[in-house]
Amino acid sequence: MSLRTFCRFSFLNLSHGSKPAFRLATGQLSSAAKKRNLTSTSAMNSNIKTMTMKDKSTEWRNVLTPWLDFFKYEPLNSAVEGFQSENGKQCLEGLLKDTLLFDDTPCVVAWDTDKDQAAGFIINQTFYKDPTPEQAKPPVPFANQNWDPECLPQIMEVEKTMQSLSQKYDVFTDLGVKKIFKTQVMCVSPKYMKHGVAQMMGEEGFKVALDAKYGYEAVVSECTSHYSYKASLKFGFRLAYECDFSECYSSYDKMTNKSTHQRARVMVYKIK
């Protein structure tokens, strides 16, 4: 399975339950509730620092816990039982290392300075319209790992679904660009959800994408969550393509939180 196409965990994908911090200021909460939530968010965020990884080949262990949490709780992953077996966790560990080392694109980590542990992280990757032989290496396939045979059909069904989404929209042709920044995976551990951690990491990742030294011309996000879609709009993304998951994912009925994951969307932001 390719993480290049398995990118529903995208630019501000809060599908794990994490909602952008700006939602706390809406009229949906009482004044007292707002005060409690804002205080809680402020207290949590004061301990969280975002940064880019300096050495992905050694720092992967620091983000293993939120990675495993992601494959346990993210709605599309929740339909795949094989991720939760001991063998499945070993395969996910190998997949994490391979995915981080796909290229040298800066990846973002949210670090809890009080507990000295990762609250979440983002895997970003770079893609080109006309890649050199070195840049054209194949995406990281899930099939590279030694999954239990009975789990493969479910895993490949997720891959098929996300591939179909990626193939429906050609960012290079539509935007006339040659180099894009793509956030492939965003993971937030459960105890850090709903505290603005995803928002903080998204902002840090956006800084990387906009940094002129990298020469990115566009940012692409494939969102399966209603929350990630709304958050992307706040950052100035536009909707390029959307489809119903219930029509393209055979395990849709087995998913948790289907109410927030009804449509898959490709969001784009043109830099130049």
Automatic annotation (TrEMBL):
Signal peptide: none annotated. It comes from the Eukaryota. GO terms for molecular function: N-acetyltransferase activity. PANTHER family: AT07410P-RELATED, N-ACETYLTRANSFERASE-RELATED. This is Dat.
